[in-house]
Structure formats: structure tokens, C-alpha cells
């Protein structure tokens, strides 16, 4: 049962009451925050180990949060607390893997790698690419050299096999990459668990139905292994969907931590090589509720809609997406080229910058601090005003830019007069209302 703030307060030692070393003014304030999930109990340096474990277990989310290594980067899976995004927010975005089959020829594998890694682009400040290379060899043949090749790609690696000797060799060869070892089942789970524990890596648990999955997880937990990922690997779409949903509901609604782990869904195994079906199922299991999806391949036809869906789904609506404040030269813009100013709302930045780049006109795009809101919203809230723009230009722009031409967004033309008074050395112009008209406007501005 989850502990309340007062329960946690009673467990905290009183030898250093209100010491503030946790960053909170009182022990009670800290205890309440821990109970709400807003602070870690480890921030109190005086809690004894047994009490620490008790509180940490009670306040942990119903689904365990696990770190995964993605080449030089790190990511997280799990940690979810709600079934639906509108209830609160989702925590860890779905990650994607393309598959390399050990049974394929070297030429086919190299071609697959080239095609899959070519899908790598930025959308609204987020890198869009397949975070994992999934290497598969059910019987273990050629697994180690393929795993080494995958690890060299600088992405996360998932090693799928039921052959213990092959798994041991492959994991040892790429131990520094911290791969996910996927292949524990009712016959090999003791060996696979020991191997995963030895290397400190996550273990993928495989079972054909919920009952066997539950029993297998219980056995692994009795062995002391709680770094698990539940793999849904069945050729039946209906069964796969039911398993993923029931695992999440059992953990979050039922409070049963046996199923409180992230999931891997083998989408490639459900599609029979049909790319359209793969895209559809990848979208389905991004929404419901795959933590990692194993795809046959990642191409732009799959990526563009899929990553757009993921970004919309896993963006916290309570935290505006913001572009870093600063000066962004466009088309080799230099200090003598005109300046266009807009807000730091990420979507506004990417729409405006795309149109300005399309114009081909050298210029400087100025991103002003507006609280992460759109142009009209930030203006209405007083965050994008003549004063804030003038302050930004005076403090950050004038020492770096010689041009004294500043173009305002058309929807805040009302700021022109006040801005002229605050920036007397600048020529203040009013641009178009819509970004799509910026191409023509920019070209006409410089006489292009």
C-alpha cells in the first residue's frame, strides 16, 4: 500500500529535523513531496537503509522505470502511472528497433543497415531515428558477429535468441553496449537470468500467454531479477493486443507489480512482411502500450507518420515545447542582413524557419523568450511585448548584428509604434500574418 506524506514523515529520523539538506524547508514538506512522487526519498541523507527500501518501494510507480543504453546516449522505458494521456501524462516514449536477421547474407545485412540508418532527421527539436538495432537468431547461428556489427552503429542493441551459448558469446562481445537480452522462456530462464545479472543488463521475458508470462516473471523475481522487459512475441494480432493491454491494466489499475514492467512488442512478427500492416500496427502499439517495438525495417514511409504520432502522444501538454532563445542565421545570414523576430514556441520556430530557409534570402531569425507560447498567446499574456523584444535586441543582438532592420510577425503589428520608440536606431517593419507568405515577403524585402 502506498504511504501517505504523514506516514513518510514518521519514518524520517528526527535527529536532524528540518535540516533543509534535501532542498525543502521542512521534513513535512519533503515527506509530502515524496508521497506525491515529486521528490526521491534518497535526497534525505539520514534515512536508514531498511526504511529507505520500504519508502522507495511504496512510492515507486506501479510500472518500473528502467534505463536503456542507446549508443552514447541513455533512454528510459516504463515508469508509467496512467492508462490514458489525458489523465496525467505519459512518461517514457515508445522506442523503435529495426531488425537484422542472422540468417541473411552479409550483403543483405549491409544493405539493411544502410537503409535503416539513413532515416535520421529532426522534427521540432527532437531527433527521429530507430533507437535500437534488433539482432535476431533463434538458434544462435552467426549471432555474435551480427551483434558486434550492430553495436558499431552507435545505437541500442537488442539480442534475440533462445540459445544460451550463443547468447553468452554475443553478450560478452558487446558487453559495453549494455544490450537487452531477449529470449528468456520457461526452459532457459535460470541460465538467461544469471547471464543478464552477470552483465547488468535487461532481460526480455517470453511467454505465449498471460498466465505463463505471470508465472515466469514470478520465478525470475524469486531469483532476485527485477530488471525485466515483457516480450509479446506471438503471430496473432488479437492475442498480442490483449496481452499488452492486460499487462498495463493489471499493473496500473490492479496494482500488481508482477506485471509492472515495460513491454517489447515484436511487430515484425505480426505482419508477415506487409509494410502497410507494419505501419498500422506500429501506430497501434505506440498508443497501446508498447515500450519498445521491433520492426522489420524503418523507412521514411513508416517513420514520418509514426514519429509524428509519437511526438504528439508523449509531449507533456503542461510543458510548452520551447526553442532555445538566440540568433539563428538563415541561408548564410551575416551581421549586415535583416532580422526577423518571433517567439520561442518550438512549432512556431520550425514553421517560420522552414519558410525563411525556403526563401533563399540571407537573414537572421531572432528567437525571443515568450514563455514557450505562440505569437498571439504570448502577446495576450504580456510575454511577447515591445519591452521584452527591445530588451532582447539591446542586450543580445545589437553587439552581434550590424543590420538595423527588424521584422515583426504580422499578428502583433500593434507593437510597431511602441517598439520604434524603444529602439529608435532600428527600422521596424511588419511581416505577413501567415508563415507561408514569408518567402515572397523576404524576397521583396531585399529586392531578390
Question: How would you summarize the topology of this molecule?
Answer:
Blueprint: H1 5-11, H2 27-35, H3 49-59, E1 65-70, E2 73-78, E3 95-101, H4 106-117, E4 120-123, E5 126-129, E6 132-136, H5 143-151, E7 156-160, H6 164-173, E8 180-184, H7 189-199, E9 203-206, H8 210-222, E10 228-232, H9 237-252, E11 263-265, H10 268-271, H11 275-287, E12 292-295, H12 300-314, E13 326-330, E14 339-343, H13 346-359, E15 363-368, H14 375-380, H15 386-397, E16 405-408, H16 416-422, E17 427-430, H17 438-445
Parallel strand pairs: 3-6, 3-12, 6-7, 7-8, 8-9, 9-10, 10-11, 11-12, 14-15, 14-16, 16-17
Antiparallel strand pairs: 1-2, 4-5, 13-15
Outline of the structure:
The chain is of the alpha/beta class.
Task: Give structural notes.
The structure is a single chain. With 448 residues, the protein is of the alpha/beta class. The protein folds into 3 domains: 5-59, 3-methyladenine DNA Glycosylase II, Chain A, domain 3 (Orthogonal Bundle), CATH 1.10.15.40; 65-314, TIM Barrel; 326-445, Rossmann fold. The chain is 40% helix and 18% strand. It has helices at 5-11, 27-35, 49-59, 106-117, 143-151, 164-173, 189-199, 210-222, 237-252, 268-271, 275-287, 300-314, 346-359, 375-380, 386-397, 416-422, 438-445, and strands at residues 65-70, 73-78, 95-101, 120-123, 126-129, 132-136, 156-160, 180-184, 203-206, 228-232, 263-265, 292-295, 326-330, 339-343, 363-368, 405-408, 427-430. Strands 3-6-7-8-9-10-11-12 form an 8-stranded parallel barrel, surrounded by 7 helices. A 5-stranded mixed β-sheet has the order 13-15-14-16-17, sandwiched between helices. The longest helix has 16 residues, at 237-252.
Amino acid at each position: 500500500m502506498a504511504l501517505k506524506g504523514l506516514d513518510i514523515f514518521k519514518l524520517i529520523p528526527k535527529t536532524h529535523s528540518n535540516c533543509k539538506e534535501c532542498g525543502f524547508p521542512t521534513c513535512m514538506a519533503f515527506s509530502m513531496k515524496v508521497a506525491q512522487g515529486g521528490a526521491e526519498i534518497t535526497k534525505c541523507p539520514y534515512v536508514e537503509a531498511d526504511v529507505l527500501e520500504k519508502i522507495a518501494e511504496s512510492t515507486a510507480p506501479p510500472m518500473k522505470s528502467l534505463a536503456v543504453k542507446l549508443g552514447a546516449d541513455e533512454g528510459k522505458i516504463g515508469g508509467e502511472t496512467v492508462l490514458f494521456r489525458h489523465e496525467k501524462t505519459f512518461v517514457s516514449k515508445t522506442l523503435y528497433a529495426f531488425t537484422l536477421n542472422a540468417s541473411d547474407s552479409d550483403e543483405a545485412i549491409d544493405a539493411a543497415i544502410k537503409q535503416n540508418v539513413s532515416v535520421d532527421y529532426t522534427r521540432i527539436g527532437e531527433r527521429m531515428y530507430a533507437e535500437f538495432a534488433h539482432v535476431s537468431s533463434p538458434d544462435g547461428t552467426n549471432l555474435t558477429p551480427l551483434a558486434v556489427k550492430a553495436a558499431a552503429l552507435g545505437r541500442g542493441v537488442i539480442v534475440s535468441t533462445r540459445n544460451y551459448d550463443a547468447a553468452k558469446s554475443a553478450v560478452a562481445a558487446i558487453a559495453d553496449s549494455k544490450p537487452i537480452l531477449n529470449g528468456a522462456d520457461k526452459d532457459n530462464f535460470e541460465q538467461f537470468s544469471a547471464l543478464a545479472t552477470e552483465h547488468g543488463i535487461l532481460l526480455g521475458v517470453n511467454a505465449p500467454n498471460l498466465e505463463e508470462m505471470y508465472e515466469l516473471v514470478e520465478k525470475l523475481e524469486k531469483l532476485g531479477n527485477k530488471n525485466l522487459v515483457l516480450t509479446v512475441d506471438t503471430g496473432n494480432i488479437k492475442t498480442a493486443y490483449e496481452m499488452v493491454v492486460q499487462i498495463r491494466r493489471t499493473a496500473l489499475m490492479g496494482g500488481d507489480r508482477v506485471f509492472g514492467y515495460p513491454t517489447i512488442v515484436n511487430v515484425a512478427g505480426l505482419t508477415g512482411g506487409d509494410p502497410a500492416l507494419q505501419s498500422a500496427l506500429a501506430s497501434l502499439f505506440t498508443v497501446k502500450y508498447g515500450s519498445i517495438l521491433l520492426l522489420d525495417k524503418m523507412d521514411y514511409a513508416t517513420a514520418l507518420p509514426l514519429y509524428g504520432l509519437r511526438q504528439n502522444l508523449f509531449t507533456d501538454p503542461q510543458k510548452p515545447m520551447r526553442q532555445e532563445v538566440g540568433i539563428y542565421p538563415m541561408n548564410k545570414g551575416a551581421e549586415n542582413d535583416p532580422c526577423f523576430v518571433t517567439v520561442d514556441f518550438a512549432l512556431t520556430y520550425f514553421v517560420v524557419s522552414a519558410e525563411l530557409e525556403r526563401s533563399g534570402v540571407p537573414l537572421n531569425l531572432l528567437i525571443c523568450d515568450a514563455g514557450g507560447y505562440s505569437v498571439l498567446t504570448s502577446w495576450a499574456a504580456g510575454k511577447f511585448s515591445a519591452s521584452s523584444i527591445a530588451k532582447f535586441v539591446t542586450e543580445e543582438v545589437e553587439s552581434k548584428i550590424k543590420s538595423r532592420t527588424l521584422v515583426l510577425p504580422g499578428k502583433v503589428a500593434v507593437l510597431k509604434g511602441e517598439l520604434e520608440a524603444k529602439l529608435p536606431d532600428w527600422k521596424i517593419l511588419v511581416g505577413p500574418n501567415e508563415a507561408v507568405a514569408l518567402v515572397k515577403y523576404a524576397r521583396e524585402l531585399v529586392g531578390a
